[in-house]
Amino acid sequence: MPVLNSIAAMAPEMTEWRRWLHRNPELLFDLPKTSRFVADKLRAFGVDEVHEGIATSGIVAIIEGQGDGPTIGLRADMDALPIRETSGVEHASETDGKMHACGHDGHTTMLLGAAKYLAETRNFRGRVALIFQPAEEGGGGGEVMVQDGVMDRFGITQVYGIHNTPNFEEGAFFTAPGPLMAAVDTFHIDITGKGGHGAMPHDTRDPITAALGIGQAIQTVVSRNHRAIDDLVVSITQIHTGSADNIIPGTAFMGGTVRTFDPTVQDMVERRLGEIVAGQAAAYGVEATCRYERGYPATVNDADKARFAAEVAAGVVGTDHVSADADREMGAEDFSYMLNARPGAYLFLGTGPGPVLHHADYDFNDRVAPIGASFFARMVETAQPL
Q: What value does the mean pLDDT take over residues 287-312?
């Protein structure tokens, strides 16, 4: 694949970086080793500025081009997941219970490769801001970085990011204009009844029966309360209750996730869940509360920037390996906060066959790192040419 020659020559070095990061996973905002590794590399590459401690452990590095111009932002996430790795690879996690199961080690490596190339060549106008973000995996680090003022402080006018995708053609890109990934909300339902002996249910107020009723009723939100052409997922993912075969418990807990693209649909789901929980609680003679929490908003690409990014990707891997109008995904991503703050685009990069993201056997495919780094570099050179 036609990656930039100097980045292709960097491939063994990039593999070393990525595997060091994989062996040393850290979670959320607590990334001391990762941040130090990234900052040390950036300084060794000769970037002009390294700003540390943003959103606790985030970094923004600035590379000055030749002549006046705007600032383009490129983002990579750095945090890992609380998963015990079972991949068996030589460079597996050395911290039990933590691993890079989503490829953020690869994302960081791709942006480091682009940083080294851009600092050496500076074949662009204006500036590039390299954004190394903590806490994508549930901590909302993207939102915190925006709240910390990175867009205004560094004058970023547009912003781009990449996520790897297993079981999609190795080295191929896909994206879409407009909505690309869903908003993610969560709900937590606490049910309080009256426990007792399993042989004497008439003396109890059974929270399990109520939980079953609530669960069945929740299924009607998708099937009966929203338009079929609106994307919506409502999934119950947790039910916790009970301790023995002959005991009716006193409490139960249910939890789940909601995925959609439309804030009015989110409003409807939140309202219906509250009504369902209250109604079913009354029907079964228990008390129940529903806590509904809004999470990451939908990831919405700027249509023009998405088309432009697809054209740049085609220049790296060829038009036959780029889908510019792919189906949107129901997963979520906190790069959405950056796209809400500035126009830009998010793309997926295929890594070929292998375990899915968030699987204990997952490992990033090092062969695609030079492709992602070349895309980042060419994005800067094409958006802000000399």
A: 97
Report the DSSP beta bridge partners of residue 205.
194
**Burial status of residue 63 (CB atoms within 10 A of its CB: 0-12, 13-18, 19 or more):** buried
What whole-number distance in Å separates Cα of residue 38 and Cα of residue 231? Answer: 38
CA angle 171, 22, 154 (to 5 degrees): 75
Residues 6+ apart with CB under 8 A from 359: 101
pLDDT digit string, tens, across residues 322-361: 999 999 999 999 999 999 999 999 999 999 999 999 999 9
- Write out pLDDT tens, residues 92-110: 999 999 999 999 999 999 9
Q: Strand, coil or helix: what is 357?
A: coil
Q: DSSP character for 99? A: B
Q: Write down how long the chain is.
A: 386
Q: Hey, what amino acid is at 76?
A: A
Cα–Cα nearest to 1, from 164, 173, 175: 173
Please spell the DSSP secondary structure of 196-238, one letter per residue.
EETT-GGGSB-HHHHHHHHHHHHHHHHHHSS-TTS-EEEEEEE
Angle between helices 104-121 and 369-383 (to 10 degrees): 50
Rounded-to-integer distance, Cα 317 and Cα 226, Å: 40
Tally Cβ neighbours within 10 Å of residue 277.
24
List 239's β-bridge partners, or say none: 254
- Measured CA angle at 58 (ends 150, 152), to 5 deg: 0
For the chain, give the percent of residues with pLDDT over 70.
99
Among residues 23, 4, 50, 92, which one has the least CA distance to residue 382? 4
Amino acid at 164: N
